[in-house]
Amino acid sequence: MMIQNRSICLRTSTLCAAVILPLLLWGQPAAAHTEDPGFVGGFMSGFSHPFYGWDHVLAMVAVGLWGAFLGRPAIWILPIVFPLIMAFGGVLGIAGVPLPAVEAGIAASSVVLGVLIALALRSPLWIAIIVVGCFGIFHGHAHGTELPSANSPITYSIGFVLATGLLHLFGIAFGLLIGVPGGRLAVRTAGAAIAVGGLSFLLGVW
Fold it and tell me: Any transmembrane segments, and where (predicted)?
């Protein structure tokens, strides 16, 4: 039975690497945010934009992963809190309210969340909300400063939020592997990979 469990664990970890490593290879450490060619459009531009910033992708997946790892009610509260606080940060960005080290904060979100997952650290729900919320402000502020240049800010925002939600769902779905043999190691391995990806962005920012 132990041999079988180890085999399942190995296959699951391999799947994890196959999913996460392409994100690390395709990311561009020298620039935390890149702009897609159709940025000034509406819904489709907003929907596609998160996928052009791999720092955002890693952080969104990490929020879902950590929520799944912490279990209920965090599994659904964290993916709700993040977009709400991100919207607040977006308002600050649109209003031109300065926020220091925005890109570094975005990159750090992947590092911190990835480490929390990799080390299997559990925290009270209120602390998890604060951690996720703080990083949400940075993500929202960065995109809020870009939002006014869109032709249709409302449809752009809808597309952006929808894409963010899908990334959260992907993280949650992967995090649910924790309930199968070898799944816990797979989730922690994914966290480590996210942390490494975030670190590469952080070094590029600095």
Answer: 50-69, 76-95, 101-120, 125-142, 154-178, 185-205
